[in-house]
Structure formats: C-alpha cells, structure tokens
Design a protein that fits this description.
homodimer; alpha/beta; Rossmann fold; 3 domains; 6-stranded parallel beta sheet; 6-stranded mixed beta sheet; 12 strands; 15% strand; elongated
C-alpha cells in the first residue's frame, strides 16, 4: 500500500489539502464536525507528517540538546542518569526530543550548540554544571538559542537571564543535621570536598545553619574536613573527626559517607539499627548498603524544568525574566537501617 | 549581516548555485581548483546548510535513536553511561547525532522507533538489552529502519540479521578465574544471579571453562551460588561458600563482589595486598574501593559499533549478513590492591 499524503487524504475525504493541513497544524480553524472526520481518517490511514518538512515550515525542530559528561571516578554520576531518563520522559510527553552532545570544554559546548542551532537542528538547549561566571547562557541567548539550566546561576545577580531549576542542597544537609540532632547527637561533623565548589559550599552551609539554629556553640562549626570525593578519603577524614570527638556525620556525598561508616564501625560506635551518618544524592549504593542519604528528587527537577522550558518555547510563558522561570526544589531525607553487612 | 545562502554564495563567487551545492554534497563532481575556492568561501562565510532541507533532499536525518532505561537499583548502570558517552562521541566524529527515547516495554520501544522512522526523524536505531526471542530487530527491519545492537542475538541461529557488537563475558570471567588460579587458589567459587539470564549464564560459563582447563575435578564446579544483585546477597552467598571451603571468588557483578569482600574479611582471610575476589563491570565503586574487576571496554564497543553501523548506513559496508557485521570484544581484567579501608 502506498503511504498516504495530505493530497491523497484530501481527495479521499472530499476536502481541500489545506483543510487536512489545518486539522494537523491549526485545528481551531476547522469546523468541529469536519475536524473530527478528517482527524479520524488521518489516524486510520497511518499518515505521519515528515518532521523535516514540518521543521522547515514551522521553523521548529521540536528537538533540544544537552551535553553529557564522561562518568566521573566516583559513584555520584547516578544522579545525572536518573535526571536524564526522567528528562527524556517528560519531554516526550510534550512532543520534544532530546539530542545528546559531547564537548571538550564549555567553549566547545557553546560552539557545538551554536552550530546545531544555526543548522536548524535544535530549538533550545539544557545546560548542566552551572558555575560562577558561567557565560554560556548569555552567549547562546545572544545567538538566538533558547536556554534553560539544571543548576542555578551561581553568584549571578541577574538570576533571571534564563529559565532554571535547581535542588536546594543546603536545605538537604540541614534536614540531615536536624535528623541527627533529634537522635540526640551534639557533635555532628561535616565531611566536605576539597575543591570549594558552589555545590559543596551550599551543602556545608545547610549543616552550619542546622547547628546554629539548635543553639550549639561556635566551636561545633569547626568539626569539619575537606577531602577528595572517595571512600578512602571519607574513611580517613572520619577517623580524624572521631578523634576530635565527633559522634555523627553529615556528608557531601555517599562516597564520603560510606568511608565514614567504616571508620565509625572500627571505632566500635553502634551502627544498629541506624548509623549516625547521612550521605548525599541517595545513589544506588546508599540503598544497597542501607545508608541514609539526601535525595535530590531529580524526577521532580526534570518535570519542573521541562514544564517551564517547553511552555517558554511555545511562547505560552513563563519568560526567563519572570519569577516563575526559576525554581529551587527541596530535597528529601531518606532514612534507612543498615543491613547485617554493616552490623557487628 | 544577512545569513549567506547557496544563491548569495554562488553570485559572490561567479559560479552556479549547483556548483556550490555540489561542493557540499557531491564534491567529486567539481574540479579541484573550483572545489577549493568554493569550499574556502563557504567556510569564510559561516554558511550552515539547514538540516531539515538537507534531510528532505537526501532523505537522511543523520540521526539515530537509542532507548535509555531507568537506573536500576544496583551499581551497574555505570557501564551503560560510559557506553552512552563514548557512543555520542564516536557518532559525532562521523556526523551522526543520537536521540534518546524512553519506552515502557519492548513493544512500546518498537512503536516509538517505528513512528520516528516514519516521520523521517531517524535513519536508524541502536538496541540494547538483547534477549532470547528478541523480535525487535526483525520487526524494525521489516519497517525499513536500519538496526544495530549493543548485545549479541542470544540464542538466534541467524545471527546475521543485523549489525551487532558485544563483549565476551565468558572470556572475562575466565581471565578472572585464571588470575586466581595463578595466585594459587584451587577452591574458587562463582557468585551468580538468580535469574538465569543469558548474560549471567555466559559469565558463569567462563568460570567453568577456566576451572576445567586447569584440570580441577568436577566437584569444583559445584562451588557456586545464585542470588539477587545486591551487596547483602553477595555477603550472605559468600558466607555460605566460605563454609563450604571456598578460598577465592569470581563474581557476576561488583555489587556481589563487594558483599563477598566483607564476608571474606570477617572470616579473617588475608585481603592484603589483593583480595582473592574479582568483580565484573569495573564500576566506579570498584576503583574507589580497590576491588579487582573485569572491564567491559565499552569505549571499544561504542567505537566498533559506530564504525560498522555508520559504514552500513552510508552503504559503504559491512552489510548485516557479512561476517564483519558482528563482533565479540574481549574484556580486560583490572587487578587492584585494596586501600587501607579494607585491610585489617
């Protein structure tokens, strides 16, 4: 059987080609009875409009691009994978597709996205790994490309230059700190990262705020370490903190928390039923080992970003300069009990 | 400045529109001097052909699709992420783009890919998660969509129905077994999965072959367990195997291996400098903890699959029915020493 076209459908139905086209592209222009009849025939015929022809006519490819990074030598990449899956799902529900790109640097990323935009391959892009003095959003917007970001514009005063959604890391570590305070701990340490990244500083701030709000003395804020994001580093950091009197730990990552778990066990601290340790990112390894952890709720983040960005792309709002264009989501604390693997 | 077009470029250079088009699309038809002059002018002008127009003319979108799955509740998803990154990179080098799709089932995946193909959005697709009686390749090929797979056609007799690349899991566990045999172990257990998946059976076979080739008695092959793919399960399985006399373990995953590591340590078995345990997939957690593991070399797999599939798409070979269309890659054994975290 020959594949149906607009013309063959129109002939079969006794309407004009334009009417069939309108049913597909501007249904409000067509009388309801006609619209229903034509739509039913289109569905029955298996007609699929060619996306290249649609793209040329509408000047929209219904495709967005996002860069993926090489897997880091840690266990935290799992968060971006979860985000990616839910993003593709949320975009699919709104008729958009996601193209992946790789790049060697932020400059290269801008070049790659610019080139795809100039060729009409993409309508917009989703940036991740936001950082201080991140000029990607303005450079790409100058080129006419629609931009959104999973990650807030760190240190920017004009936070409304593009649509963004982020997770409030400080709120997460504060919840973790309050959880440990409620369990009776007063010497709660923080295991952070060496590189003073915005994300890392944000997570430390939540712990500080939690301790201050509980009225703990200023010296409680000194019970912290900075290290690379590895098991072994978390183990060594926790050993130092234990010798300084720590009785619980909030960690910037699950990698650090798992190292800390081992240090606590060797020190003979009761880990049953719950370890006085909270990780961050709720990675599969946290659930596999029974470690409590802060969950970024990336499903919600993917949905919130998709809803805002696709509404903006179809010019039904919000604009990047409106308050609705930005959103900080509250993460959740997942409290777990350790399996017998970690009990004495 | 107005964006250059084929016509404005041709006028500027004093050649026909067709000549400029030929330089872009069929350079072998143009005299070398003209080709160089026109190519230089195209580059200098910043001209970018519209991909939708190219797609309509060439009936090729230069875009492929691949389904991504939700992150599993384990630590092994990291392998697919590494594959994905290298795949996008390898495709980029050959002018192809990768679109991600999500689906609820294999049937849904076929429907989604078929629809994208009928709309001219994709030229081909990359399947993963091959399984016995997998009818996706033939169903999609019947529809005219080019198909390749990361994963061999398990249990199929006509293995040449589509291009595929896979990693030889049995070769990996055999290497792991030989490594432990060389270290003097004779009671080498295998920790496998409960679901008798093709991948799991393949990994077990490599261990069996290694033991048989070393001339060990048949009862050595009974030193194995099946469990779910979790730390705790690996720990419990290893405890049972240790009480049956095991002195080393080859595992179907890093999750199981990390559980086994803990069981060996509690039993007082020397883990220094190297644990007599080998995991599978060389996940970030293996490198973070100092665990030896079989690496699937997914970078090579992504490159091999991309090279074969893009050559096939541009009709420069190999065809799926040729031997060159299929390839089984040999994984590597990464031997590590444990950090002090796991030493007594």
């Amino acid at each position: 059987m020959k594949r149906p076209t607009l013309v063959s459908l129109a002939r079969e139905l006794g309407v004009s080609r334009q009417t069939v086209s309108n049913v597909l592209n501007a249904p409000h222009l067509v009388k309801p009875e006609t619209r229903e009849r034509v739509q039913a025939a289109i569905t029955a015929s298996g007609y699929r409009p060619n996306v290249a022809a649609q793209s040329l006519r509408k000047r929209r490819s219904m495709t967005l691009a996002m860069r993926i990074y090489p897997t880091l030598d840690g266990i935290n990449g799992a968060v971006m994978d979860r985000f990616l899956h839910h993003l593709v799902d949320a975009l699919r529900g709104r008729g958009y597709h996601l193209l992946l790109v790789t790049a060697d640097s932020f400059d290269d990323e801008v070049e790659v996205l610019r080139d795809m935009h100039e060729r009409g391959r993409i309508d917009g892009c989703i940036l991740t790994d936001s950082h201080v003095d991140d000029d990607r959003p303005t450079r790409l917007a100058d080129d006419g490309l629609a931009v959104c970001a999973f990650g807030r514009p760190w240190g920017r005063t004009d936070e409304a230059s593009h649509i963004w959604v982020d997770v409030d890391g400080a709120a997460g570590t504060r919840k973790a700190t309050e959880h440990l305070l409620r369990a009776g701990h007063r010497r709660i340490a923080f295991l952070g990262w060496t590189d003073s990244s915005d994300v890392g500083n944000d997570r430390r701030r939540g712990w500080e705020d939690g301790l201050r709000a509980a009225g703990l003395p200023g010296e409680a804020l000194e019970l912290r370490t900075e290290s690379v994001d590895r098991f072994q580093a978390g183990f060594e950091a926790a050993e130092r903190l234990l010798s300084r009197g720590a009785d619980a730990a909030v960690c910037a990552s699950d990698s650090l928390a798992l190292g800390a778990l081992e240090a606590f066990r060797r020190r003979g601290i009761t880990l049953f039923p719950r370890a006085p340790i909270v990780g961050f990112d709720n990675t599969p390894i946290a659930s596999a080992s029974g470690l409590s952890s802060v969950d970024q709720c990336v499903e919600d983040a993917a949905e919130a970003l998709t809803a805002r960005f696709t509404a903006h792309l179809s010019r039904q709002g919000p604009s990047p300069t409106s308050e609705a264009g930005a959103r900080l989501l509250e993460p959740e604390l997942v409290v777990r009990e350790l399996g017998s693997l970690f009990t004495p």
